[in-house]
Design brief:
Elements (H helix, E strand, L loop, with lengths): L2 E6 L4 H10 L8 E7 L6 E6 L2 H7 L10 E7 L14 E2 L9 E2 L4 E9 L2 H10 L9 H15 L4 H11 L2 E9 L6 E6 L4 E4 L4 E4 L11 E4 L4 E6 L2 E5 L5 E2 L3 E3 L15 H7 L1 H12 E2 L2 E2 L8 H6 L2 E6 L1 H18 L3 E5 H4 L10 E7 L5 H12 L3 E6 L5 H5 L2 E4 L12 H20 L5 H12 L1 H9 L2 H10 L5 E6 L2 H17 L2 E6 L16 E6 L5 H12 L4 E7 L11 E5 L7 H19 L18
Parallel strand pairs: 19-20, 19-21, 21-22, 22-23, 24-25, 24-26, 26-27, 27-28
Antiparallel strand pairs: 1-4, 1-11, 2-3, 2-4, 3-6, 5-7, 7-8, 8-9, 9-13, 10-11, 10-12, 12-16, 13-14, 14-15, 17-18
Helix pairs in contact: 3-4, 4-5, 7-13, 7-15, 9-13, 9-17, 13-14, 15-19, 16-19, 17-19
The structure holds 5-amino-5-deoxy-1-O-phosphono-D-mannitol (M6R).
Length: 622
């Protein structure tokens, strides 16, 4: 979704803003813009559609915009098409058609999120003589701030808080006021925003990688808070305008973790980082051979009391939930429901104090997952968040947090965060099984020993990448792909299918293998690719039979199975073997060939692997 950046200090702002925006490109966008001011001079605004280099060209890499205070934005269109006039920053005055140039305005701003009642607010402003040049909800927000600022002759913080109580929806806002030459004012509700400080400089951004090159000292501005950002100094306020303190957090991960490090794409790099992400996550949860979840605050007593688990998430994180369902039910014997966050939040699902709601999210900012978390809390459930981004909103609002240790994930298509979430869920299942006496201490130890072998086994799967590269070169013109499996293999199929379609734009579907014959099999024709995931011993023959049903209707078959299962070659056309492990952990290995297939297919089709069309890394709108 949209990316926000800001800078105020002693250096020229525009080149810094452009550099920071380039590190937010992964969030997805269709236009970009900057507003920079030079001392008391008015803000100069420049915007461009398309990739960021258009904006960089238009501003001579930022050199054409003089000034040490500015804001920048990459826009992922929600209200109004992706045009220059709709691109941010927006201003309180009137703009020419291009929306660029020195603009006679008291307020200029950028926004991430959606203002749900913008029509009602726009009508109010129209009645007070305001006119509008764009179709955006952001222009409405900026003009509303301007309206309160002038009507009550109050300072920026009070004008912003007045708006915050009027606006419904989600927002991260960064605003510059003509009368406050070297300051930026920011506000946040349900959309991410961080503020970095150095000795004499301050930075704003939607995400840490944008400013990591400049500072590691970061404030996570709280929900419904306002920040007054001056060079090297930030002051925070609550909705009443009272000053509040927000701690400074030191970012410990390396800036290089958010660089490509010699790989052609972030996605390929992150696929290769999976063994490390899994090892780091396991090491953070297993100490001296024992599972240690003390940092989550989940006690043994709470675990014994659980009557029902609801796992709630979106996209790949939901697929982790699907896999976790099989593992938790099988090992710990606790009933598990897996819900899409966008559905859960509007359903009246019976929840009581014995329900543990687990929210899984890489970013910790996904709007639907955050809303689901709040619904679960309101209904009295205990909540546990499995989150990758430290300090994110979901992590802060959940009762208990279990952090995955995947490090920053930049590619839109998740890989290492998915793998880290899987092992976190495995650990949780084993821990619950041990506490609830479904597994003996020896069995727990044995399972942990097996989990510890996963990073090396994942490395061995990665060594097969040339074969998968070769196979995907043959399928670049495929139109439809079906991923099938039963049980845990179905959960893996869901992720394989999403990886394929989101970055290769080839239509693909995942089906529970036994369900295919109830309708979908009519889509199978000559050379349709059917990928069968065959890691679960008891279900192997059943799924192979379903694959044969497809083959006899013309399908081309690829099977993913464990080493030594050579009889599969009698049935399928192409086989990928993965090392053996405990059946509960197979997803961690089987997903890797599927990620590689998606990756190489996207590369062969010449697509933008890391930033697929229409998608955003962190979906902060509903
Ligand atoms: O940050 P989250 O884990 O909450 O994101 C959830 C989904 O948007 C995400 O997994 C999405 O499906 C990925 N792009 C898939 O690769």
């Amino acid at each position: 979704m949209c990316g926000i950046v800001g800078y105020t200090g002693h250096r020229q702002a525009a080149p810094i803003l452009l550099d920071s925006l380039s590190r937010l490109e992964y969030r997805g966008y269709d236009s970009a813009g900057l507003a920079v001011r030079n001392g008391t001079a008015l803000a100069e605004v420049v915007k461009a559609t398309g990739k960021l280099y258009h904006l960089a060209d238009k501003t001579d890499q930022g050199r054409a915009l003089a000034g040490c205070c500015g804001i920048g934005h990459t826009r992922w269109a929600t209200h109004g098409d992706p045009s220059v006039v709709n691109a941010h920053p927006h201003v309180s005055g009137n703009c020419s058609g291009s929306g660029s140039g020195t603009v006679e305005s008291d307020v200029a701003g950028v926004h991430n999120g959606i203002i749900e009642n913008y029509t009602e607010l726009k009508e109010k402003l129209l009645r007070h003589g305001y006119t509008f040049y764009s179709d955006t909800d952001t222009e409405v927000a900026v003009k509303l701030v301007d309206y309160y600022y002038k009507k009550y002759k109050i300072g920026p913080v009070d004008a912003i808080t007045r708006c915050m109580v009027r606006i419904r929806g989600s927002y991260a806002l960064a605003l510059m006021f003509k009368d406050y030459p070297d300051e930026i004012f920011a506000a946040r509700k349900d959309s991410p925003l961080i503020i970095g400080v150095d000795e004499k400089e301050s930075y704003l951004a939607s995400d840490v990688p944008a400013i990591l090159k400049y500072t590691r000292q970061v404030h996570y501005i709280g929900n419904l808070q306002v920040a007054r950002v001056a060079p090297g100094k930030v002051t925070f306020f609550d909705l009443n305008g009272d000053e509040v303190s927000v701690p400074l957090t030191e970012i410990t991960w390396d800036a290089e973790a958010a660089e490509k490090g010699g790989y052609e794409h972030f996605m390929l790099k992150e696929i290769h980082e999976q063994p490390q992400a899994v090892r780091d996550t396991l090491n953070s949860l297993v100490k001296d051979g024992q599972i240690d979840l003390t940092e989550t605050g989940l006690t043994d007593e709470m675990i014994r009391e659980i009557g029902q688990i609801d796992i709630v998430a979106c996209g790949s994180a939901w697929h982790v939930g699907m896999a976790a369902q099989y593992v938790i039910e099988d090992l710990a014997g606790i009933p598990v429901r897996v819900e899409l966050a966008s559905e859960f939040r509007y359903r009246n699902i019976p929840i009581d104090r014995k329900t543990l709601v687990i929210i899984i999210s890489q970013s910790g900012e996904t709007a639907d997952s955050l809303a689901a978390l709040r619904v679960a809390k309101e209904r009295g459930a205990a909540t546990l968040a499995i989150v990758n981004v430290i300090g994110s909103t979901i992590a802060r609002e959940a009762d208990h947090v279990l952090y995955t240790m995947a490090g920053p994930e930049i590619a839109v298509a998740t890989t290492k965060a998915y793998s880290a979430q899987l092992v976190a869920a495995d650990i949780l299942a084993i821990h619950m099984a041990g506490i609830r006496e479904k597994m003996t201490a020896d069995q727990v130890r044995e399972m942990l020993g097996e989990l510890a072998t996963l990073p090396d086994k994942m490395r061995r799967v990665l060594e097969e990448k040339e074969r998968l590269q070769w196979f995907s070169s043959k399928m670049a013109n495929t139109h439809d792909i079906f991923f099938i499996g039963r049980g845990l293999d179905y959960a893996i199929s869901l992720e394989g299918s999403l990886k394929m379609k989101e970055i290769s734009y080839i239509h693909s579907e995942a089906y529970a293998a036994g369900e295919l014959k109830h309708g979908t099999i009519s889509l199978i024709e000559n050379n349709t690719l059917v990928i069968g995931v065959l890691t679960q011993k008891e279900l192997y023959e059943k799924t192979v039979s379903n694959m044969m049903e497809c083959k006899s209707r013309g399908a081309y078959l690829l099977g993913i199975t464990t080493n030594g299962n050579f009889s599969v070659e009698d049935s399928v056309n192409f086989t990928v073997y993965i090392p053996k492990t405990d059946q509960h952990f197979m997803a961690s290995l089987a997903v890797i060939p599927l990620q590689l297939l998606g990756y190489y297919t996207s590369v062969n089709r010449g697509l933008d692997v890391d930033k697929p069309r229409n998608l955003a890394k962190s979906v902060t709108v509903e």
